Amino acid sequence: MEKTISENGETVADGSIRGYDSLHQLLSANLKPELYQEVSRMLLGSNCGKSLEKIVLPESANTLSLKHDFDLQALSFSADKEQMRKPRVVRVALIQNSIALPTTAPFSDQKRGIFDKLKPMIDAAGFSGVNILCLQEAWTMPFAFCTREKKWCEFAEPVDGESTKFLQEYAKKYNMVIVNPILERDIDHGEVLWNTAVIIGNNGNIIGKHRKNHIPRVGDFNESTYYMEGDTGHPVFETVFGKIAVNICYGRHHPLNWLAFGLNGAEIVFNPSATVGELSEPMWPIEARNAAIANSYFVGSINRVGTEVFPNAFTSGDGKPQHNDFGHFYGSSHFSAPDASCTPSLSRYKDGLMISDMDLNLCRQYKDKWGFRMTARYEVYADLLASYIKPDFKPQVVSDPMLHKNSS
Ligand SMILES: NC(=O)NCCC(=O)O
Questions:
Q1: Which of 49, 74, 370, 374 has a Cα-to-Cα distance from 128 of 20 to 30 A?
Q2: Site residues for ligand 1, CB cut-off 6 Å
Q3: Which atom of ligand 1 is nearest to 276's Cα?
């Protein structure tokens, strides 16, 4: 167990929930098995009438997780057998990690340290036959956007920069599609910055990029100091393993953002994130799962882990005393499926690799079952939105005439 810190006024072990890695671990350790089964059925849902099955991973992957002390979980989502289509099972993985060195270390050492700590996790994914892997938001750096200091811009790199080159080797080696979320510097357009996910194909080629659509202006998340809202729309990348998209962090609070990736045909949407307990933990398991249900696709949610302390104290104009850290990034990466089932979460404080098999046929099966696409009434909302964005928009409110009588 790590040192203790104070979070929300309570003393807790650093990042754990009173010594437990995750909510699911806490519940399974403290409830009678028959009660845990009921809680788990409601909390994690069921897939084809049963709980998710554990995947047996190769010994080499388990050995790496023990040696390098990262959480490793692997569960399988299935779909009903169809007569006309073969199952389309893909193995998908998420990596969550803390930074490797203090934020005061030379920048190149910090970056190299993170690359080094990711190597065994990527190898474990490769040894396990993972087809698509997604890393966390701005994984090459501390999440320094709380500080508003511009020196952290040095971590930015072009789409084909150092981290993409690093991951291209793994993509080729393991025949793996890799989603690489970075702080991007657009060299060809005045060296401006973006929050970007680069999609690397299984041949090591760059398929494309997506830039974060919604930029937070909440609490310490002062990201608008660094980059603007993305200009790449809602691309879906057709890979040899399926159609994927990336909804970067704060975009998960915007149902229309999720919808747009769905309308473009996504089968798996990744949500690489950086968010802290006090701000968003109660939202975390709900938003992704809701998006998976409403849009009939799989969602892979990833959050970094640990508490990152910065050399200079900062404030966020909210009257709180100045401080040197964001709070605790609570990990808890997991997958959600269109049938409302989801995996348990990875550790709240340890690095981790979450692997899932998913039969992508489940997406269409759930479109057919619930008919959310058919019943969506898009034309009604298109009309409303078209009028809402006009300056002369008036909300459609029908007031009780008595209301006005009483107030006059
Ligand atoms: N990185 C980022 O967008 N964080 C915002 C906080 C949140 O959405 O929970």
A1: 49
A2: 137, 216, 221, 249-250, 273-275, 279-280
A3: 9
Q: Whose Cα sits closest to atom 3 in ligand 1?
A: 250
* Cα–Cα distance measured from residue 73 to residue 50, given in angstroms and rounded to the nearest whole number: 18
Query: Which of 134, 157, 223, 249 is an active site residue?
Result: 249
Q: Judge whether 249 counts as a catalytic residue.
A: yes
The verdict on whether 137 is a catalytic residue reads: yes
| Nearest Cα residue to atom 6 of ligand 1 | 275
- Asked whether 330 and 297 are in contact (CB, 8 A), the reply is no
Whether 54 sits among the annotated catalytic residues: the reply is no
Which is it for strands 89-96 and 132-134: parallel, antiparallel or unpaired? parallel
Q: Which tokens in the block code for residue 331?
A: 């990990």
Nearest Cα to Cα of residue 298 among 240, 363, 242, 247: 363
Q: What is the pTM of this model?
A: 0.95
One digit per residue, the tens of pLDDT, for the chain of length 408 reads 344 545 444 445 578 999 999 999 999 999 999 999 999 999 999 999 999 999 999 999 999 999 999 999 999 999 999 999 999 999 999 999 999 999 999 999 999 999 999 999 999 999 999 999 999 999 999 999 999 999 999 999 999 999 999 999 999 999 999 999 999 999 999 999 999 999 999 999 999 999 999 999 999 999 999 999 999 999 999 999 999 999 999 999 999 999 999 999 999 999 999 999 989 999 999 999 999 999 999 999 999 999 999 999 999 888 889 999 999 999 999 999 999 999 999 999 999 999 999 999 999 999 999 999 999 999 999 999 999 999 999 999 999 999 877 665
Give the closest residue (by CA) to ligand 1 atom 5.
250
Ligand 1, atom 1, lies closest to the CA of: 274
* Cβ within 8 Å of residue 349, ≥6 positions away: 2, 13, 14, 15, 16, 21, 305, 306, 328, 330, 331
Instruction: Measure the CA–CA gap between 214 and 223, rounded to whole angstroms.
Output: 10
Ligand 1 pocket: which of 135, 275, 304 to mutate (most atoms <8 Å of CB)? 275
The domain 53-377 is placed in CATH, from the list 3.60.15.10, 3.10.129.10, 3.60.110.10, 3.60.21.70, at 3.60.110.10
**Contact (CB, 8 A) for 135 and 270:** no
